[in-house]
């Protein structure tokens, strides 16, 4: 059969789920194709390829556009449609109005394999674990314990058919799952969905991930590697020792990864630096321990934040630290303190987002229960991360100042005393404006290209 994989938007990293699903399809003898709704001629491809199956990977932002595209495609060719990804997993109630033949919930490789087998043999697929169909929803199957049993990811499908083949940064995933249950993250739902179905956190072997990186490096431009795992490493264990040895010798390309600030130590940082770690992403979210623990549920130990940040820099690793502005129960001073914390911690780039309680998370329920948002009108998509707060607990002045911190906090953290104090005074009295936005854009682009991702030129 011919399977057409479709996503709404590509961005700067290919969807690894599609690479794994394409490998599963090819292992069964099927042909695979790829299209981006925002960039490609989707309907034209449907007419030319005439796929038997169209598989959509969809997040919340792309849902409506994908549903409409599927309806249009059905007018020109007959096929079986299936949707997976965050939309299907975290909003299964949308299946009834989606026009899809099936939703795939959760980890999809083996469900997709079984689905393709039934479709190719013209047999019913309604009883397949993980699927939602017109006959109802089935329970999810156990998680894949040994990730190495999966066929090698088909990275060529997306990379060779998009502009990503020429971009200097390539993204990889060494793990699946996150051990933590932060209130603003959908991982909580995932933990509940797979309760009793196997360990949430699993890891590819070092040899497996190194071979994947070597394969991509041999075919495409690759000056920098980003590991997109929720949490790349927790301690200096045998896996990380093997990785540091193999990566430094066989790949030797600088990389970035995500860490937890409260678990970094010298042994962990030494191995990461040996491997070639250039920078790390960290989330502090709030300078208030109360907000971190009691509202955001970060399960973060009480540490000397600035000391741990400086420790990372002493190992020669740059730091990107995310702060979440305008979280419930946070004060204006909590958000202003992010500037002084960044100074004390010698943070390379302090990054800001506005708190956006998304449906399905504990933070969303928290805000609804306290009438901080109106669920009948609240949009709650991630575009709000770069906008003023939508929560009713803050007045307009509060929202303006916090949005100014979003725009200028990273700049102010670099200013010497007393210029930093003057800048803080300015953002308290001057409303958000295009000039502030332009400054943020320029500073962000510089740091992301040169200090967080080491890129000679963004292709």
Key phrases:
459 residues, alpha/beta, Rossmann fold, pyruvate-formate lyase- activating enzyme, 2 domains, 7-stranded mixed sheet, 6-stranded parallel sheet, 15 strands
| Distance, first to last CA | 35 Å
Number of structurally distinct domains: 2
Characterize the overall form.
Answer: globular
The strand order across the widest sheet is 2-1-3-4-5-6-7
| Overall pLDDT confidence | 95
Count the E strands: 15
Query: What summary fits the major beta sheet?
Result: 7 strands, mixed
Tell me what portion of residues adopts beta-strand conformation: 15-25%
Query: Would you identify the CATH H-level superfamily of the largest domain?
Result: tm_1862 like domain
CATH-defined topology of the largest domain: pyruvate-formate lyase- activating enzyme
How many helices does DSSP assign?
17
Catalogue the unreliable spans: none
Helix content estimate? 25-40%
